[in-house]
């Protein structure tokens, strides 16, 4: 279904993505890990054509999506929805309208300016919000929601596009552990229940191990690991992160360290 063939992206002297190739059959949950600057975002941005590739092909169902232009490129963009670390919602706009903006590609500008959405679209948006457990937030301004709720709104907006693939660029990097889990559970449900492929850049190993069917490790733009979570040993992680013997997995963990949890328990309720 997806075949990445010798894809590179060069910025001046810097090769951000260096001749990467891999193939994914079926709607898997793929995690991409690697330290800052490894090329993770650049790869996702090439997938949905926000950044052009210097060379290579990305075949989706046999068609090279890097070769598409104009309307065909825009059609592809609506088939691979992107979710960002900072949610990228319109903060002062209500939640339902934010979700409806997922239909932007397929609706006229006038419809959007006057907020005149077809009834079927409005019902679809409310259905999706309901599915993600945030239907009651629909009339509120996006900025009034917690980070975890805002990310679920962003996922709902992505689902309005009915995408084949969901690309998530560090979707939980701004969230506390509890909200991070809710958002990752939501992405996993969409992957397994809807059969949509998810490719997520993740900054923590425990999340990659827990949610992904397959993990790709990038280092300096190259694939240095490609396997199932069970193969992602501490040694493999050292290779990906380029760390020495002092490499400590906790540094890449989203869960609360035990001393912090104990500390929370002894605080009086008002102070928490
Ligand atoms: N528009 C650009 N112009 C020049 N260099 C860029 C540009 N975008 C990315 N780079 C460089 O390409 C390399 C890979 O960046 P990229 O953002 O893809 O890494 P990343 O793994 O996503 O890191 P992070 O987790 O910090 O976002 C970095 O050295 C970065 O400085």
From TrEMBL:
Keywords assigned? ATP-binding, Cell membrane, Membrane, Nucleotide-binding, Translocase, Transport
Where the record annotates domain ABC transporter, the positions are: 2-245
Matching SMART domains, A to Z? AAA
Q: Which Pfam families match?
A: ABC_tran (PF00005)
Q: Which InterPro entries match?
A: AAA+_ATPase, ABC_transporter-like_ATP-bd, ABC_transporter-like_CS, ABC_transpr_PhnC, MetN_ABC_transporter-like, P-loop_NTPase
Q: Name one GO molecular function term.
A: ATP binding
Answer whether the UniProt record assigns the keyword ATP-binding to this protein.
yes
Under the heading PANTHER family, the entry gives: AMINO ACID IMPORT ATP-BINDING PROTEIN, PHOSPHONATES IMPORT ATP-BINDING PROTEIN PHNC
Q: What is this protein called?
A: Phosphonate ABC transporter ATP-binding protein
The organism of origin for this protein: Pararhodobacter zhoushanensis
Q: Which gene encodes it?
A: phnC
């Amino acid at each position: 279904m997806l075949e990445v063939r010798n894809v590179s992206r060069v910025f001046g002297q810097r090769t951000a993505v260096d001749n990467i190739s891999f193939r994914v059959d079926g709607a898997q949950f793929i995690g991409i890990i690697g330290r800052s600057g490894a090329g993770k975002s650049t790869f996702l941005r090439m997938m949905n054509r926000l950044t052009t590739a210097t060379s290579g092909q990305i075949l989706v169902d046999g068609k090279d999506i890097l070769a598409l232009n104009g309307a065909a490129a825009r059609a592809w963009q609506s088939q691979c929805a992107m979710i960002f670390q900072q949610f990228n919602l319109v903060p002062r706009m209500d939640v339902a309208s934010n979700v409806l903006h997922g239909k932007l590609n397929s609706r006229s500008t006038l419809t959007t300016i006057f907020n005149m959405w077809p009834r079927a679209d409005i019902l679809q948006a409310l259905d999706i919000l309901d599915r993600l457990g945030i239907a009651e937030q629909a009339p509120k301004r996006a900025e009034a929601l917690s980070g975890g709720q805002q990310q679920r709104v962003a996922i709902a907006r992505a689902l309005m596009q009915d995408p084949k693939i969901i690309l998530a660029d560090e979707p939980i990097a701004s969230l506390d552990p509890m909200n991070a889990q809710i958002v990752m559970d939501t992405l996993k449900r969409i992957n397994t229940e809807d059969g949509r492929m998810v490719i997520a850049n993740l900054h923590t190993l425990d999340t990659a191990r827990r949610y992904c069917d397959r993990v790709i490790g990038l280092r300096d733009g190259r694939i240095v690991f490609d396997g199932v979570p069970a193969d992602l040993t501490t040694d493999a992680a050292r290779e990906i992160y380029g760390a020495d013997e002092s490499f400590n997995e906790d540094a890449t963990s989203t869960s609360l360290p035990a001393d912090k949890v104990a500390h929370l328990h002894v605080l009086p309720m008002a102070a928490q």
